[in-house]
Write a structure and sequence with these properties.
Helix content is about 40%, strand content about 20%. The protein has a five-stranded parallel beta sheet with strand order 3-2-4-5-6, with helices on both faces. Strands 7-8-9-11-10 form a five-stranded mixed beta sheet, sandwiched between helices. It has a five-stranded mixed β-barrel with strand order 13-14-15-17-16.
Amino acid sequence: MNIIERNIPAAMLSELQQAGIHPLLAQLYAARGVHSAAELDDALKHLLPPSGLMGIAAAARLLADAIASDRRLCIVADYDCDGATACAVAVRGLRLLGARHVDYLVPDRVVDGYGLTASIARRVKERGADMLITVDNGISSVEGVAQARALGMQVLVTDHHLPGPALPEAEALVNPNQPGCTFESKSMAGVGVMFYVLLALRAELRARGVFDQASQPRLEPLLPLVALGTVADVVRLDANNRRLVAQGLKRIRQGQMQPGVAALFDAAGRKSRVATTFDFGFALGPRINAAGRLADMTLGIECLLTDDRGRASELAHTLDAINRERRVIEGGMREQALLMVESLFDEGDEAPPAVSVFDPDFHEGVVGIVASRIKDKLHRPSFVFAASAAPGHEHELKGSGRSIPGFHLRDALDLVAKRHPGVLLRFGGHAMAAGCTIAEEHFEVFDQALAQVAKEWLDAATLTRRIETDGPLAPEYCDADLVDKLHQEVWGQGFAAPTFSEEVDVLSQRLVGEKHLSLKLRHRGQPVDGIWFGHTDPLPERVLIAFRLDVNEWRGERRVQFLLEGAQTNG
């Protein structure tokens, strides 16, 4: 492991400090590429204009016409948190803007798989829909869109995933990653794309005289859902996404949120008045995702749609129970998968450049999480496969992969598909996460083919785990109130939470819960508590550590503690 300090451009740091930004925050922002204080203004007026999104004007006209004609709309969502929040935003927003008939359908992970299929299009038609609207999917659904239109439905595709070789022939297609779209924020989540479509629709309705500036419905109350889905989908938090998230967080902290969001905070034991992006990514998001992994994402969507606080609480606690079940299943799968991975190479040897594992007892709803755990442990692109439980597909394997910086997983799958035609039945995804379906008999071929691509693309430097940090922490910044201030900022993918690095003395260490290392440290001459979750190996008396800051409250006293992320011994 290498602990690397981020570069801090001096000119950017100076400009931020001169603008009156706290010295530590100025250092953190400069290291993350923020050039000026203006970039940190999260006011809604600074959002990129919807007009920059290719296809959004056509989408707004299509929806405005549908509302004027009192047509029946059906949202086809995805079964993850981004899909669930995007669906809730679409249903709530379209109703706010005058649509009287808005239904939704979410595919079943096991039976239907991902995206708008021909069979789902038929089910939507059976519900009496005149228009089908996809959220967080659809860019690759060429057959599904064709089937929907053949059945007489209009189709609006809203998505953010990378397109395949052919685009679906929908009436309108809104996706910042479609060819020819010059929209600056390519990293918007599916929920962000749908929110932008609603902004454009409202503007179209204003132009038609349905509303004026004073009487138009407010869409800002939807921002807590946009923020939750954006962070939970682990998209890059560029300036535009940070503004969307910041606005959502502000409303949540003020108590202005959907009953389901409030209920999820309660079920997770988190305080909404001090909500952070960490809550979205590690508390609320996993509880919604659990429904799509083990049960029915309708539970998650209904939780976000209901305005009945009692019903919201009931659904949130159901989601919490499903998430606890998910943890148990994941724990067993993770142990089994790690044993399988460790058998692939001798102790002391380097792990293969990429790893793939399959077990007939694995649950397909949890393979992505387990792949992430393997990737974190080995620092290798990792795929985990489970047998498909879909009727008629018993001999197929569904796999989910997670990658490391420098290895574009979807591009790697594309190369595997070209080198071994017929092995990949379906695949898609992003640079850091992707999924695919293969025949069980082709598992070994896939395993070797992915490892070969990784061998060609990855060098020793890329295969060495690196932790980028913000360097040493001045003693005066070991302050509980300042840590609270740091936590209130918008951190996430592509805008990493503050992580510091420094040599410390290890005064004492002990295991807690048999799997966490509790530490007493000396930092710059001052004692400080530390903990390294999921780590059991003892540390030397003096060591370079990478750590995040947290506040530990005990008997009314608030003290800063270090959360260790890694350690590097000299020599």
